[in-house]
Amino acid sequence: MDNTTDKQFEAANQRAAAKQAAFPSVVSVRYDRRVARIVIVLASGLELAFSPKHAQGLEHAQPSELADAEISPSGLGIHFPHIDADLYLPALLEGFLGSKRWIASEIGKMGGKISSEAKTKAARENGKLGGRPRKNKELATS
After folding, report:
1. 63 within some domain
2. Residue 11 — pLDDT band, cuts 50, 70, 90?
3. Looking at residue 31, which CATH number applies to its domain?
4. Which of 12, 50, 87, 125 could lock onto 78 through a cystine, CB 3.0 to 4.6 A?
């Protein structure tokens, strides 16, 4: 049994209409193998092109899995049926190709890969002191 009231349904429709008014809809999407980019064309004429490696849910996809992307009926979503992944245009634009949490983890990974003289020196100094202190097992389990 559905507990949705007419008032809730109308409010949801108003929120959806506001989203559609705030963001141009997707008019086409394709994977361009030549440049290894997903290309999204918006109703405003803006074209977005990005590497799937930089988009949450697509980072491990093969080119053949990106070929048959579908635009949602609202025009604000893109579905990749071969990998059952979805992109929501407002979130894509607001979070720059993924959720804020995912973006933060990606930035952390990049920072961890960068080496510099300062990081090398700090690691050597830390090593002379016996390395990182061990974690207290009691604190780790609570």
Report:
1. yes
2. confident
3. 3.30.2020.40
4. 87
